[in-house]
What does this fold into?
Amino acid sequence: MYRRLVHESLNEMNFERVNKNPLSTMGIGKTQLIKDWLDEMGVKNYTIKDDLTIDVKYDVDLSLKNLIKFPEYIKFNKITGWFSCANNQLTSLRGCPRIVGNALYYNYYFTCAGNNLTSLYGCPAIVYGDFYCYNNDKTFYPEYVENLCDVKGSVYSTIGD
It folds into this structure.
């Protein structure tokens, strides 16, 4: 009986098929969880893809948010601007974007400076600009960074680079 009521309720809501998920429309489910977190963090101009990764048009500033790690349901994909998760208490970069910037301009950057990182596992595969990773629990030398990430600009691994 309850199954029939839920089914009928969902049918009565007449959801649009374009980018509408019945669970999200009702304010529940993983997509809604992602939206809530992004909104709480002040991220704008985002698209949640079918695989639940997040694309963002323009910049993402997650600095000074007291983050220890990204929630397990957060996985950025492509950011067309710069991405900062600096000056938190991050111990992992799992969830960071796969691509930062775009191939037209190399003036974008990725920064994870000022955290508690001992590894850069989870860092972007490509940064169309500079990569800042100084002031962490470990010093990440440029060779290490460049083995993990195709950095089109410079790597800044110590203050004063």
User: Anything to note?
Assistant: The longest strand covers residues 76-79. Confidence is low (pLDDT under 50) at residues 4-19.
